[in-house]
Structure formats: structure tokens, C-alpha cells
Protein 1
Amino acid sequence: MSEFGPTVKAFLHQLILAIFVVIWLIPIYAMVINGLKSEFDVTSTPVFIPPLHPSLTAFAAVWSQLDVPLLNSVIVVIPVSLVATFIGAMAAYYFYLLSVSKRRSLNFMSNTIFSLIALATFMPYQAVIIPLTRIEANWGLLNTYGGAIFAFILFYIPTAALLMSMFMAVLPRDIIDAARIDGSGDLRTFFRIVVPLTIPGIISTLIFNVIEMWNNFFIPLVLFNVAKQTLIPVAVESFTGGYGTLYNESFAAAFLASIIPLLIFIFLGRYFIRGLVTLGTGGKGAV
Amino acid sequence: MVVTVKLSKVTKTFKKGKRNVEVLRGVDLVVERGACMGVLGPSGTGKTTLMRIIAGLEVPSSGEVYFDDKLVSTSNRIIVPPENRNIGMVFQSWALYPNMKAYDNIAFAVKNKGEETRKKIEEIAELLDILHVLDRYPRELSGGQQQRVALARALAKDPSILVLDEPFSNLDARIRDSARALVKKVQKEFGVTALVVSHDPADIFSVADVAGVLLDGNFAQVGSPLELYDSPVSASVARLVGEINELDGVVEGGKLRVLRGVVERRDCQDGNVKVGIRPEDLRVSETEVQGMISLGKVRVKVSSYTGSSFRLVVSPLEEEKVELYVNSDRPMPINSEAVLLAKPEKIKVFKNN
Amino acid sequence: MATLEGRSRLRSILNKAALVLPTAALSIILLYLVLWNLYYSFTNWSLFHSIPEFVGLLSYAQAMSTVFFRSSFVHSLELSGGLILVGNLMGMLLAGLLYFVRSSKLRTVYLSIFIAPLAISMAVNGVIWLWLYNLQIGIDWLLVRLSLPALPWLSSTSTAFPSMFIVAVWAYSGLAVLFYLASFMGVDKSLIEAAKMDGVGTFKTFFRVLLPNSYQGVIVATALLFLFSFKIFSLPFVLSGGPTNVSLQTTVVYMYYLYTTEFFAQSTAIATLVTAIAAAVVIPFALLGLRRWVRRE
């Protein structure tokens, strides 16, 4: 390396990073600019050139197809992620109580449950699709909010429980003992002490679950078969184009579908990243 | 509803990897109603385990724990869970709830939240001098204030027994003495049975009526703090309750020889023994002193000032390797020679092990 | 007194039950679905046999004997294996570059950019890349301007799968970057400074100090890249406009294809296979990795 001066090295370092950053940003850049193109721009410019005559016509065109799915996604995802996070946190506290217990039988049980939860978190949810659709069909839940809510709760509570049990591993043991000695039952301790002390973990779990649920494509694909009534990722897929579709509409639809997760990512990204880190290392990451 | 706490043959075994570690080996203990018992021991001797068993946070492997005549724990079974034992506990870390203000921390343990409770909490806060910080969060309090909030929390529920785990070790040295005096005062004022666990003899001596030394999972000696200090049953106990010089000695026909000195000891069997002499029972002098016996000439190696008195390290002239700590009322020049004197009645003789 | 104790014990049990029952109930439902799925896989349930009958492993044999299964399973292995390889390399490279960025603010911004694709729906990513792969207005337009040969991307069977692989690398490398960077940041700073004092170059520091101390990054990045890539569904689905494109079909897409064509038993057989493979990776990872790290040992 001696033939390079430190300035050259620093420049190369920045340059290589910049190239990768630009490559990584291109698809997102394309999504943002191309939705703003007019019909004229679409026929005259490729996807890398910004619009010459920015217009909202594409957004107006796709809005009538996407307004209901967007609303559906909001109605399903926001409450379900709140409920799933909360229920998962309760279960996580139960595992915490199991794992600090010195009884070996309980410890074995806690290990078993932990593995099952991890499996449920990482298992391809496609794998239970047939029984799930059968149940939902029997209960008349297909094409309903209830059906989507049921499926999301089923698949994302394990994620919440896994994340929260890792965030709870750092709860100071003395404080939980103190609460017990002070005559507080497990539920009271959970609400009065555990929840306030794990707020950052709860936010991370919540954000992670909102983004994951919002972006889930498979579940609405199989649970809804009315195009206009589905959730947003599936609705966007109908704009993939083929011949005759104008690409500004595809990008406008993609942008509308991503606006909520992207805003969350821009403003609360550290919570999402902390969720990812915890999912991988139990919160050991230093980023 | 203050209780007498009784432990009978309590053992506790932990599994550490593949090995079984016996932390407590048949501990018997009685803490009388209203008494303050101190448990002294080096770390890792089961002090904390003993305390957690009394609190109900840990299950004894065998043996029984009684509060008055009521069985609260027995072999591998907790009969009365900690939340029903009405224990006031001060943790080493204080374990204050960080999300609650001092007042709510104290009130958390109290069942009914009426006007009466508020009055009582304020009274206790007044007594502990934390009345003005009741609306602050724990992180906004000094170490001493946190400790007193923890103490107030433990007292506010009218506990059957007060358990203090290393209650002073996280405090600055300069406020430790006043904290100890305060604990002693409120313990007597509330008349509550108390158990103090610590590795520091100063904690035990300033707070406890009765003290026990826990060594290798059982009590090596139980008695008043003074008894432990003046008549320890073994060198290990003597070492734990205070600083002590340990020397080799020989007993022959009722006479103990140690260094160059000879002391009458009728109560000892003949043979090699360990001799213990505390630094304050030694003196270095050029002349004979009434009531002290000479242990021979020594050379001063180190002379230092320790707060209120001088501390010397001396060695006998003919045995450079032996070093003794001696308290002194004045500094001595290094390498000066003098006679080492000892109070004969304070010399402790232990079996050689 | 006995009743008081009984009551307190009951209270304690009810408390614990309230904490765990909702999750336990839903977990049991999930487990029930998995078992039901397993049961179906031993039947011959399909469009032609609307009443399932027990046929042993026949549905497995049928589902796994098709050419679609072989190609989709190979695609899944290639996708997961390739992503583990390329993702880890990208993770090392980009995290290494990020580690030596001086400003921590800038580093966070760069890291966020690499992770951003994970915050967008894979279906949306698919829609975007469909147009980027367009032969007139997409990347090819750029390549032609630069006098480079244009590629057929998704429209040729030989380049379709690599094209999809590029999207997966773009979407999932952020995971590896994150965990490598986390590992690097966890390496004792004084080691790096000592290396600097000794005049060791940046490259040598990276290969001799940072990488050897980052085994956790390798394990986590590999496990998560596998688990995320093995269940990729929406990307091949969107890029090929449905579940039938043979050159992009992965195992889960094949499973969905069997489902839509109402070969239910065969679909559940593939689902069982997929679950078993995921379990083989997840359980050791959860017990040996996560559990140990969580316990702060």
C-alpha cells in the first residue's frame, strides 16, 4: 500500500463507498422521480432521467385503485402491530420469569418454548397456508379484515415475543425481586414496572412489526381474492405493467405503497435497525 | 406483626455445569423478635443465598424456615411466597423503580393508598431526611438519598422482618458511618426484626446486636460483635472481623512462646499453635511499659499515617521475613530499632491447622 | 390460613396465566395448523380427490418427482447459497468501508441506505426492478449510452435468474452489512489503535484484526440471509407476473403453484419439507446463538 499516499487512499475509500451508495439508491430514486412524470415524459425519457414536466397525473390515476387497499392496510396493520407487540411482551415477561427461575424443569421448558417461538418467527409462513385458508373459509373470514387480522396476529406475535424476550433479558433482576417482595403480582409488576422499563424495546418491536406487516405480500395474496379489497402490497402488484401500462403509474403506485414504511424508516429507522440487530444477536450489536 | 425468624438445617445446592456446589450446609439460625442480626462473611460463602432463602426468593434444598411458628419454606418448596411474607428489603443496588418518583417507590409496597398512608410515608421520610426529595426520580438523587428511599420503602409496609443486603457498600466512605447510625436508629425505633448481610465488619459492628460469621456454608461462630472481635474461635474468623497479625508460636507447659516473648497460657495444650495479635494490641517503644510484655527487638520498615493514627510495619531483627502491623501514636524513622510490646491478655491462640 | 395460602397461590397462577395465555393459545393454533398441514401431506387431497384419503408418502413422491420441483428446489438452493456467499462478501466489504468512515453520523446515514430496501415491500421492490430491467428504458438504456452491450435480463431464460439474484443481493445485503458492522464495532478499539501505532496498514488491520474477531457477524449474517432468502416469495412472483415462470420459480412459489392448481396434498408435502429445512437452521441458531447471547455470557 506504500505507493498510495494517505490522501489517495482516503479518496479511494470515499469513492468506492459513494459508488455503492449510489447503486443502492438508484431504485429508490427511480421510484420517487418516475411517479411524477407526465405521459409525455414517459414516452420520451428513460427511468433514470428526472421528469421534465412534473405532474401528479399518475398519482391521480392510481389513487382510485389504491385508496381502499391503503386504508385497509392502515386499519389492519396499525392495531394488529400494537396488539401483537403488547401480547408478545406479556409472553416475553413470562419467559423472563421462567428463565430466571433456578428450577431446572422450568429452564428446560423455557428453552423449548424459546426454540418454538424462534421457529414460528422464522418459519416460512407459506408453509401453513392451506390449513389457514381452510379455517378462514370455514369461519367466513376470507376477504375480511378479521381474516387478515387473525393471520397477522398468528404470525407476528411470535416475532414480538422473541424480540421482547431479548429486550427483557437486560431487566435488572433486583428490581423484579423488589417488586415481588413488595407484594406486587406478576401482572401489576408487568404494567407498573416492566413496560415502563422496556419502552425502547417495545417501540423497536412495534416499528419492526409495522414495517414487516405492512410489506407482507403473501398473506393478503391468499386471503383476499377481490382486487379492490385487498391490502396495499398486493394492490401494487396489479400495476406491474406488461404492454400498454405506463411506467409512471407503476412507480406512483410503488411510491404510495412505500410512503408509510419509508417515512417510519427515515424518522424511526434506528428502532427498526435495533429490531433487526436484536433478531440476529439478542441485542448485542453496537451499531 | 414483627416475627422471630428461625432456620433449621437449611442447605442449598446449586448446579454449576456438571458439578454440584453446596452453598449452605445445614445452617441453624434464630433471629429473635426485634433483634438485629448481622451475617458476616467473604463473598461467595452463601450470605446472599441465605438472605434470599429467608426472603423466599430462593428455595432451600433441604431444611425449614419459620416465621414465628409458621413454616414458610421447606425442602424444595416455598410455602409462603415472597409477596406474602411481608418482608422489607434493602438491596445492595437499592433496586429502586427508576420509572417512579421517590414517593411512588415507597408507596408501591403499601396496600391501602389512603390519607393515612400518605401521612405515614411522610413521617418516615421526615425521619430519614428525604421529605424534600419525595417528588424526584431515583436518578436525580444522591447515593445516600437513594439508600434512604430504599430503606423508607422497606419500612413503610410495616415489615415482619427487615432484610438488608450489603446496604452500605455502594455508599461513599464518608457518609457510611452516618448511614449506619441511621439504620440502627430506625431499626430500634420501629422495633423490627432485622437481618444485615455484609462482608464489612464495620457494618455489622455498628448495626447488629448479634452477629454470625458465615464460612464455607455454615456459621463458624455466633455471638455479640465484641465476642467475635475479642474471642474469635479460629484464625479465619479473627481475620474476617478485623485486621490481625498472624504468627507461629509454641505452647509448652502452660507457656506460650511467640517471637522473643513468653506469655502464661494455662488454657492451651502443648504443641505448635497460630498466634493472632491485633495491631492495636501491639506497641513499639524504647522502654518497658506496665502491663505489656516484650516480644523482642524489631526494626521499623514502613511508617505511615492512616487518618487518625500512625501505622508501622515492623520486622523482628533476626527474622526479616516476618512483618507485623503496629498502631502507634507517633511516626517512627525507617530502620530505627525498638522493642515490640504486646498486651498479653489480648493475644489470641488458635489451633494449628 | 390454608385458604389464604390457597388463594394467594391461585392469584399467582392466574397472574401468570394472564401473561402467557393469549400467546399460548395462538401458538397452539399455529402448531395445530402445522400438524394439520402435516396430516394433509400424507393424504391424496386434490381437485380430483376432494375427500382426503391416507396415502402415506405418495404425495411427497408425486410432488418431488416433477421437473418443476427439481428446478424450483435448485433455484432455492442457488438463491440461498448464492446470497449467503455474495451477501457475506458484500457485508464484509461494505461494513469494512463503513467502519473506517470517521464521522459516525455519515456512517449511520450510509448504513441506513444499505438497509433501506428491507423497509420496502419486496413486492414493491419487484415492481421497481421490473422497469429497471426494461429493455428500452431501463438499465439497458444506460448501457447502450456507455457503449456497453445490452443484456436481455428477465426476458431470457439464461439471464432471468441471475437478474433476480441481483435484486435479492441489493435487497438483503444490508442485513449482512449491519451484522458485520456491529461485530466490527464490538472489537476492542484499543486493538485497532495498537495496530495503528505499530504502523499496520488499513488492509492488514481489516484482515488480521477486524475479521478474525467477528465470528458472530458471520454466524448471524449467514443464518439470517438463509432464513430470509429461503422464504422469498414475492420477488419471483412479481418479477415473473405469477407463480408459473419456471426460470424464476423457487420452492415456496412451486408450493403456491400447487395450491392454486388445487394439488393440495402435494402442496402441503412441499410445505412440510420447507418447514423441516427452516427448523433445521432455526433451532440450533436459536438455542446455541440467540439464547447464549441473550444470557450475556
Note: Residues 57-100 of chain A form the longest helix (44 residues).
Protein 2
Amino acid sequence: MTDAPAFDALTFENLGVAYRVKGQLRQVLDGVSLTVAKGEAYGLVGESGCGKSTAAFAALRYLPRNGLVNKGRILIDGQDIGQLSGPDLRKLRQFSVSMVYQDPGRALNPSLPIGAQVAEVFELAGVPRAEWPARVHDILAKVQISDPGLVMQRYPHQLSGGMQQRVAIAMAIASNPTLLVLDEPTTGLDATVEAEVLDLIQHLRRELSTAILFISHNLAVIARMCDRVGVLYAGRLVEEARTDQIFASPRHPYTAGLLRCLPQAGRSKDKAMLATIPGFLPSPGSKITGCIFAPRCGLADETCRSQDPAFTRVDGRASKCHYPDRIAEIEAKAEAPFMAAQQSGAAILEVEGLAKSFGKPSQRQRVLRDVDLSLRAGETLGLVGESGSGKTTLARCILGLLTPDEGSQLRFDGQSLAGTTAKRSRDQVKSIQIVFQNPDSALNRAHSVYRMLSRTVGLLVGLRGAARDARVKSLATSVRLTERHLSAVPRQLSGGLKQRVAIARAFASEPKVLICDEPTSALDVSVQAAILNLLAELQATKGVSYILISHDLGVVRYLSDRIAVMYLGQVLETGPAEAVFSGPHHPYTAALLSSAPSLSGPSEDRVRLTGTLPSTANLPAGCVFHTRCPRKIEGLCDRVAPSQIDLAPDHALACHLPPEQLSRSVQV
Amino acid sequence: MTDISARDHTWRDDLRRLFRSVTFDIGAVIVLFWVGCAIFGPSLVPHDPFADDLLNSLLPPSSDHWFGTDQLGRDVFSRVIVGARDILTVAPIATLLSTLLGTALGLTMGYFGGFIDEALSRLVDAVLALPTVIVALLALTALGTSTLTVLFVIAFSFAPIIARTVRSAVLTEVGLDYVAAAELRRENTFYILFVEILPNVLPPILVETTVRLGYAIFTVATLSFIGFGIQPPSPDWGLSISANYGMIGGGFWWTVLFDSLAIASLVVGINLVADGIESTLND
Amino acid sequence: MLIFAGGHLLPGNVGRAMLGPFADPTAVEVLNHKMGTDRPVLVQYADWIAGFLTGDLGESYAYRAPVAPFLLTALANSAKLAAVAFVLVVPLGIFGGVVAALYRGRAADRILSVAGLSATVVPEFVSGIVLILIFGVWLRWFPISATWKEDAGPFTQLYHLILPSIPLVLILFGYIARMARAGMIEALDADYTRTAVLKGLSYPQVIWRHVLRNALLPTISVIATQTVYLIGGLVVIEILFHYQGIGSLIYTAAKKKDFPMLQAGVMAIGALFALTTLLADLLYARLNPRIRYGGRE
């Protein structure tokens, strides 16, 4: 910056941060230089382990005890924060920089009322005690909390996640800081709540002059929120540009790779496989000569492997690559999709009137009510809905891990299914299997991969000895695991490999129906792409049907043939994937679709939901969605439950609105 | 970089780190010393620990009798060394029994939950509502004093404590999907409990068992001291203190001090071992 | 109920036990009948529960006198001893735990943790003996018996109770400190503590306002459960220091097979435990907004 008094909000000058682990220094950030101008929103993206959060905490000089800045310096508002004394550092945190992070429920003190926690900020700012309540009231109103007086008296656990995050944001902006650091502020929140919180941040930006350092693993969120973006890879900044530039024409192969492996609108398993980034992230502290990305780069040559490229700036954008102009060359050799499996059209799994409730009669939690679904052989049924909509409970009922309520009907291949696995025939059990969300939970950490696979093959397929061994090996091969992996225990494997083991185990019994419960939500996007490709390939070769549960609409869209939208234990809409995405759709589907951030920037006509998800112990009368529906018909929706109407053959939804008044998506 | 991670640490690494822990080393040396005394003591001591010598009763420590002699003229040093024997038999067996029982109970409660858990939890709470010493007093009064009764009383009153530890560890495990995966391949309950879940809850069981061993020694010594534990003529420490502490006002400190220090060193030694194991496993 | 069953699992009959093996069989019969011990066990149990609820605890076999007055005196005496121990150990234990947590991983923490835990496993009579030897026999600072003269004032009583309470303090210190430390560390590592630091609060403000309250809540329930251990320790301490409390009452009753006395004593302890647990739960609920205000709306 040339104007002397106008310092940048934040400057990293050749920043290096290391952690001392078992007496050795592990370099987590290395030579990172960036500036965030006053009032600017700067996004920092990268996969897990790239050093994003370390950068965030370094900006507040709040590193873990074993962490230290061992290179360069950090300036906030022109002040080198490494040189600050204790009291000055506190002043900095009081007035110049604040932070909001993931999991707002834990960020607030559980034993103090909201009012007291927010008031502390004003106390530190020297506001007279008498003014605190009014100031707290104002700031809560500013973050669009509708009844600040009431919320001030509440304790954190009495608020929803979205409200908690609003409170956290209120505390962060109360002192009108120069810089606001947002570290994955919406990760873990439902899409509709995430959209609200992002809206709020956008809105506040217009009102305040605060600069933002926005850290996220989610490219779409960054695209929506930020002016400029920096991409971190293995602790180095590999590319930096304006948001529109970076997503339109990346100038680093890693950025390009990340963008290509996203399952975005328009990508589906029938058209092409997703691109992947081969190889693995180097572990922090490992010594690599040359470009750190070279081992995984399609462009890499001798120069790349021997010389570390400089972070070169051209026309206001920068890239740490020897060949930033050749990125287009590695355009995906868009691998042809697998031939779609034969979809016979016959229903293999039918769910009729399924209900599941928990708890004592007085406080009955009705988690599923009257669910009707059918799954055809060889197809993928995507199940979407916010958390608490009953998706996982439905999956567990189908598997027989939970016994549905009396009167529910489940049929597999025309035969009725008993409520528990124990009462089902072996054929039925082996035909319906699952890939769980989190491989760390799904794989027994005390058992080897071989043991897990062979036990399943032995019990469900009934193979013994050499036949079993052969089957285990072929299973491993089918998910691209090598024989070396068979003797490994889970902790020796990366997240992607663990999920492959879980998939192999699920396929061990040659199931006809496979439930995939958020199969990639614990994985980074580059790993996710490989897993989605694998699932598509296995479906094509084995003709299995999937029920895919995911909160990520991109993932659902990529794999699904049909989609069911769930809300509060009921299915509100079912239909072919394209029809559900393009509309006309149920108001809830419309809200869900419009709340998902996309790389193409913010959508203007977002459907906003108000209020929070009602409790399953006290379901709303009439249409379950009426309490939050923006298009509620007073006197009808809150009294009468709508019945299913068929918009087209195979596309049905439950809404009182006449079909011609239902909304359609602008972008298909 | 290979795809099988190099940071694979095995139980051998754990062991190596364990031996590097100073508290563990000190504790292990103390415990091994007393185990050695219990096994080889009788053939090594300078005097017969049971032989009365009324002419030489209550002698203060000297070069002949390093720790002096008691009321009956028996050599205190020899008795302290040999005194490790009974307590180091009863306490470990009782602990082992309580671990087996408590683990089975905890696995059952944690895995099945519901009514079974509720009922067993009540039982556990009932046993834990009374101090072990009181339970032991009741049982010993009712069943008569014998070493076997002591052993069972300790086993039964410690089992609920271990069961509680195991239960809470199992509850965490049961929430994990590998248990559901096992049910989905129709594993039998026995396999799920002992092959799937048990290996993952062994670390807390190991720590709890070591801690319990310390308390078993605590309890046996206490019971012996109040006359309900190990019976005469054993040179047991608690028993010896009980026989001699009445003369404490007369200045015959050597008849009780060495036995006291023996008990203290043994329980502290075991506690140090437990601490070492715990901090190694929690790293 | 278990306690009552315990008293009745006894081999042989009560009359025989009291009169000795050589007594006249008819005398035994008569005595058994007089005490009601020849009636069906369930009848006796119902009788006894009814009695317990109305304050009639039956008659001691050994003293041939009602149990209740003995029990009340003993409870009062034990309460004094326990009170001295608690007043010493609760602040010490909490302070020790807080200090250990604030200096986590450093020497102060290791010493406090290892020493505290070691102290909890040394039997009370062992530390009692050592204390008596040092402070009673060699230094002669404290009396070696806890029983005071009838007309002793409160300070003399307190003086007698100092030495006996120390073994109890040693036992409990480690537990309380350990819980306090664990609670502190959890609170120190919590995100809300980070929020407080990043607000710009000073270190003492962070500790006072945000850490301590959340950290010490769980410690309350621990202190309650520790009363059981304390009572277990009373038996030994009261014997060692010749003190007439509930512990020595139970011990004497057990020695003399005085079952009404034994039952009443043990029952009193059970009731005491239930009561302290209840009080601790109430206090915990009072201090914890999660319980006080229930879930979200």
C-alpha cells in the first residue's frame, strides 16, 4: 500500500509456523505471504491438513503451546503482533481483531446467560455498566436476532445452532474490529442454516468496514463470500487471485484439480467420471525438493522436481507454478462413464407406511411417519433433508438395525422383511448392506482389513479356506486395495483407503441394495471424487441399487437417478433427479436447493426459511412444514395435512399449492 | 510417501515408552522387590519369623535384629520380609476375580442396555453405596472369618467398580458403526462382545485393574488390622500392627513402623505402576 | 435389604451365639422367642423396617438396651470427626487440583498428582500409625487418643480431632484434587475458554469467570460420593484413636455379633450416603443451567 496511514488489515510476511511434536519441529505453514486490505473479504481454501486453521489462529497469536512462528511476521493494522506485550495483545484482541469458529455450541460458556457473555465485550471496551444491556440488545438485533431481550436471558444450550452462531458473531463484531477471522463458521450447520448465517455475514459486511479472513474447505462457500481467494496446499500458498478469476481460469494445477473433482451441477455418473488428484498430501515437515505438488501433478517435469517455483505475481494474481499458462493442458481426459446398469423398473425394495418412534408414550419422539418409498433394481435413490429429518433412522430401519413401529411394511424382492436382522433370512441380510458415514467408526480399530473382509465373506457367503481367501483378494482388488493393505489395521490407512475397506466389506456379500449414508462427508473433495467414481463403477458392474443419503446436493445429483426429499420424518417429494432439481418443486425442496452455495456465485432469489426445526415430540398439525414455509396458506396448511399429488408419472409431492404455482429452478 | 502410514505404533512401542516413564520404573522396582520377598523371603531371612524367643522380646533394632523384636521375641525384619506373602496372594487373586466379573458385567450392561442395564446398574449402585470395609465386616460377621471370605468379599465389592468403568467404555464403542456392521453380518453376541468390543476397551480395564490391585491390598491390610482379615500366626503386616499398636505409647516404635512402611511402599509402588500405564495409554 | 439379609445369613441361631455353646437348650429357646428370632425371616424384616422408620431400632443383644441412643451418640461423634476432615480437605483438594491444572505437565502438576494419588492408596491405619509415632510419641504435640474428657470445650475437642482427621484428609485429597484437575483441564481446553481469551479478557478474568465455574461443577458430585470412603475410613481411624463413633460402634457390634446394633449402624450409613448423594444432586442441578432450564424451546 502506498498511502502511508492506510495499513492493510492483515499482512502475512513470509510466514512460517511450526509445531513441536516429540522434540521435532513440523513445519505447518511455510513462506506464506498475503495481505487482506481494509474492508476486503479474503478466502483461504484448502483440504484438511493444509494449515488453514493454523493461519487463522496465528493471526490472533493464539497458537497451541507447542506451536511457534519461526519465520516471517504477521501485521495487523501495521502492527507486528509478534512484538506485542501481554496487555497490548489483549488490546489488539479487544479492539482490532476477533474470531468466529466452527461449532458455536461449544464456543459459548454453558453456565453464563447470553447477555452476560456479550456484555463482557462492552465491559472491556470501557462502556459504563449502565449502558451494557442496551448495547447488548442493539448488537443482538444487528445480527438479526428477533427477540434480543429474551435471548439475553437464555443460556447457550437453549438456542439452536444458527442462533448460537449469531451470538458468536455478535460478540465478534461488537467492538467493530479491523479484522474478523471466520474459521469454517458454517461447517456442521445445516444447509438452510448455513445459508442464513452466510447471508448475515454478507449483510454485516455492507454495514461495517471490517475486513474478513474467511477460512473454509468449501470452495462454493468461499466463492459466494469472498473478493479474493488464496489456495493453500501443504502449508504453502500455491495460488491467489480474484474470486471470479480463480474459479474461471485457475493458474495452479492443484486449484484446477480441486475444481475438476467437485461434483457440480451438470455432472452426473451417466455423463462422465469425476476427475481425481492422484497421490497423497505430503505429511507436514517432510522434506521435498522442487515443487511440493510435483508428485501429484500431471504437468510435472524435471524442472518441477528439482526447483521449487517462486510465488510469482502477474496482473494482480499469483501462482506458485513453473507453468501457470499450461494448466489448460491437463484438462481432464474426461473418462467415459461406465455403462449404466440395466434398470429393470421392477421395485426391489418397497417401504410402505413406515413409522418409527422413540421414548415413552408421554414424550413420544416420532422420528419417522408414514414413509412410502420404492427402490428399483440398479438405480440410485438420493435421500436429502436437513439433519433431524430422519434419513439415518430410515436407513437403520431398512437394514433391520432398528425395529420399525407396528404396522410398517418393508418388502424386499416381494418378500416381507422382518423388523430385525436376527429375524431375517440370511439371504435378506446379505442383500441389504450399508456403507457408513465415518470409516473410523465403521471399522473395528483392533482388527486387520483381512479379518474384517474374511469374517463377512465367511458368515454371509459361507465360504471357507482357500475360496474365502480368493474372494477376499478379489474384493480388495475391486476397490483398488492391494494385498499389502489386507494386513493393515485401520489406523495405518488414510481416510480414503479406510472408506474403500468399508465399501469392500459392504460388497462382500454381493448385496442387491446398498445404503450409502453420507459416504464421503468425512473426506476431502479430492478423495471424495475417487470414492464416488468407485461407487458408480461398482453399481454399473454389479447392478446394485443404492440409497444415497447426503447433505451435499452435488454428490446426490452426481450419483442419483431418483431423489426423495425428507422433512421431519416424512417424505415431502419424490421424483427423478432431474425433475426434482429443475422443478416444479415443493417449497421445502426449493429452499433446500437455493440454500446450497454454488461456484457460480450467489443466487439472487434465495428461498429463506424462518424459524427452527420443530421437535419430533411435538409435531406441527397439518402440513409438517407449515411452521417454516414461506408460502403457507393461512387456515389450510396449519390444519390439513396435504396429500401426495402426482406432477408427472413418478414425480409426486405433498403440498396444498396448485402445481402451476410451484417454483422452478432458474439454473438447471 | 507410501500409502500405509509409517506412524504405525504397536504395543511394542507402547511398552518402550512405558519403561521410559520414571514413575512406572520406580513403582515396578518396589513391587518386584516385594514380589521377590513373597516368593523367596522364607529361605532368605536371617531368623525364623515364627520362632518365639520370650527372653529377647521387644528388643530395639540392633545388628543382630535389624528391625528389633516383637512382644514374643520374634525378629521383626524377618517377619516384615515374609509378611508380604499372604497379602500378595489374596489381593491379586481377588483383583483378578473382580476384573473378570466386572468386565463381564460391564460388557453386558453396556451392550444390551435397556432393562438389563437398568437392573444391573441398581445392583451396582447398591453395592457401591456402602464402603468396602463395612460390606466386608457384614459378610465376615455373617459367614465367619476366613481368608477365602476376604478374597470373595473384595472380589464382589470391587467388581461393580470395574463394571462401571467397563460399561462406560463399552457404551462409547456400542455407538460406533463397527458394532452395527457386525450385527449386519449376523455375528453372534458372544463374538461381538469379546472379539469386536473387548479388545477396544482393554486399555481402561488394564488401568482400572492396576488401580484396584492397590485398593485390594489396602483393603486386605485394613481388614487384617481390625482382625477380620488374614489370621494369626501369619506375619502379615496389618496383623502385626494390630497386635503391637497398643504398645505404641510405650515407645516400642519398631514393632509397628516397619510394617507400616512396608504396606505404604507396596501400595504406593502399585499406584506408581498404574499411573505409568495410564499416562502411556492416554498419550 | 441387603443389610438385613446379611444379618440373617448367619449360621446357627442368635440365642445360641449369645449364650454360648454350653447353654441349656431351653434357655436358648426362650431367649430366641423373647427376641423374636424364631419367627419367619420375612416377618422379622417387616417388623424391623417398620421400627426403623418410626425410630425404634430394636434392642442391642450385647447391651440389652435400646440401640437408638448408642447410635445417635456415635453418629454425633463421627460427624465431628468427619466435619474436621471435610473442612480441611475440600478447600485443599480443590486448590491442589486447580493449581495442578494451571501448571499442567510441569513439575508442580506431576508432584501434586503423583503424591495425591499415592496418598489415597495408603490405608488410614498406616498413615495413622506413622502420624501417632511422629506427632504423638516423639514430638508429643498431639494426644494419641481422640477421646476427650467429659467437660472438654470445643477447642479441646478440636485439638483431639486434628491428628485423627489427617489420615482421612490424606485419603480424600487425591480424589478431590484429581477430579478438580480433570474438570479444570476440560474447561481450560474448551472452546468457550478460547472465546474468552480471544475477547481480550485477562488471564485471571478468564479463569474466574469462565473456567472455574464450569470446572468445579462435576467435583461436587465426587465430593458427595467420597463420603462413603470417609465412613469406611472412620472404622479404622476410630479404632486406632479409641474414639466412640459410628465406625467403632459397627466394629464392636460385628465383633460381638450384636446384630440389631450392626444392622442399625449399617443402615444409618446407607441412609447417610443416600442423603448426601441426593443433596449433591440437588446442588449440582441448582448450579447447572442445563438442568435448571431444560432443553431449548
Note: The radius of gyration of chain B is 23 Å.
